[in-house]
Specification:
Length: 252
């Protein structure tokens, strides 16, 4: 049952696969989407596929997208420490149908704004697809580091994952001021967190993400609906903004 009847909902960030920390299958994901009224979700591979087994994880996501193209889009994950092999893999995965790059500098072992990631972003720029970056971890994944990446690659759109989470909420909002190609994704910002209220006046720069299965999609949607009450705000956050981020290429 839809949590927000009449408002199309796209989830900008969910996980898929059997990992060390998380486990979420396609059918489980689709069931949770149906319960929350989510029309489409952007899928990223879980931990071990992000850190080491990149091709295996990307193929897992590709299979899900091919089987459920009406509901799922996917992002590739490639560790920049694999250098030329990583560049080849991101080109392969994007060429076969994935719609962006997922960067998790904590799992992958570098500081988010380190130039080690530049060759991957240069390859992604060839496909003109967005980049989702995890934020909310001290020293390795902070909002201003995400802004630095966005400023270094102004032609790419970046999603600031988890909006800096609870520790970097103020930084996340300020970071948006420095890079017009940066959007804040909402997951991990629960009802006791004031990050969402800080971006109340910046609804064009916010996209909904649940980070399922870490969090329950329907609950995350209800939290956002309490903050962003108008239909215009909800349509922006739940669907229109993410379409802008993907430049109209979210669907196959």
């Amino acid at each position: 049952m839809a949590v927000l009847p009449g408002v199309p909902i796209v989830d900008a960030h969910v996980y898929l696969g059997e990992g060390y920390h998380l486990s979420f299958g396609v059918e489980d994901l689709l069931e949770q989407m149906d319960e929350a009224g989510v029309e489409r979700a952007v899928v990223c591979p879980v931990d071990r596929f992000v850190a080491v087994h990149n091709r295996e994880g990307n193929d897992l996501v590709l299979e899900a997208v091919r089987s459920h193209g009406d509901r799922l889009s996917g992002m590739a994950a490639v560790n920049p420490w694999f250098e030329g092999e990583a560049v080849d893999e991101v080109r392969r995965a994007l060429g076969e149908g994935l719609a962006g790059l997922f960067v998790h500098s904590v799992y992958q072992g570098f500081r988010l704004d380190d130039h080690i990631v530049d060759p991957l972003l240069e390859a992604v720029a060839e496909f003109d697809v967005p980049v989702y970056v995890h934020t909310g971890t001290a020293a390795q994944a902070e909002p201003f580091q995400a802004a630095e990446l966005a400023r270094r690659f102004p032609g790419l759109n970046f999603i600031m994952g988890h909006g800096g989470s609870s520790d970097y909420g103020e930084d996340a909002v300020r970071a948006l001021e420095f890079a017009p190609n940066l959007w804040l994704e909402t997951s991990r910002n629960g009802p006791a967190n004031y990050n969402l209220w800080r971006v109340k006046e910046l609804t064009s720069r916010v996209v909904f993400g649940s980070s399922a299965p870490e969090y329950i999609s329907a609950v995350e949607i209800e939290i956002l609906a309490d903050v962003f009450a108008s239909r215009e705000e909800r349509e922006a956050i739940f669907s229109k903004n993410i379409e802008t981020v993907f430049k109209g290429r979210l669907r196959p």
